[in-house]
Amino acid sequence: MESGGSTMTRDAAAASVRIDKWLWAARFFRTRSLAVQAVEGGRVRVDQQRVKPARNLHLHDLVTIERDHERLDIVVCALATTRGPAALAQRLYAETPESRERRIRIAEMRRLTREPALSLKGRPTKRDARRLQRLTGSGTVDDSS
């Protein structure tokens, strides 16, 4: 798929790109620094091994990405060093069927049973704190409010 000034290549002999650049170009992370943090934090693995941001990625490598309560297993189909349109970025990888099924199943479970803690925002108000104290029976409560 190499045409003119395109940075996407399918030539396996000369094809290798830093994993942080590829993750950014494939639009898995908004910035390269976020991609670097994910790789350094162990949330990105290549062939089930932890890697460093400077590791070269090759065609057909299996990359596992953990982000926002989901795990993606993808196979590298093409390499790129620059960020392009989303349609072009989606051609850089293919998600494995097992990963797609797992992601759909988890999304369905999340849709059916909401996490109760997601509705909590910040610290409780004074009113909420008083209600909690009444329920638990801890502390002194002024019932005049």
How would you describe this structure in keywords?
single chain; 145 residues; alpha+beta; 5-stranded antiparallel sheet; two-stranded antiparallel sheet; 5 helices; 17% strand; elongated; disordered N terminus
Q: How would you portray this structure in words?
A:
By secondary structure, this protein is an alpha+beta fold. It starts with 16 loop residues before the first strand and ends in a 9-residue tail after the last helix. β2 and β3 form a beta hairpin. 32% of the residues lie in helices and 17% in strands. The N terminus is likely disordered.
Q: Number of DSSP strands?
A: 7
Helix and strand pattern: EHHEEEEEHEHH
Radius of gyration: 23 Å
What is the average of the pLDDT values? 85
The structure class reads alpha+beta
Count of helix runs: 5
Helix content: 25-40%
Stretches with pLDDT under 50, minimum 5 residues: 1-7, 9-13
Anisotropy-based shape: elongated
What is the CA-CA span between the terminal residues?
71 Å
Query: Could you tell me the strand content as a percent range?
Result: 15-25%
What topology, given as strand order, has the largest sheet?
3-2-5-6-7
Major sheet details: 5 strands, antiparallel
In short:
The protein is of the alpha+beta class and 145 residues long. It contains 5 helices and 7 strands; from the N terminus they run βααβββββαβαα.
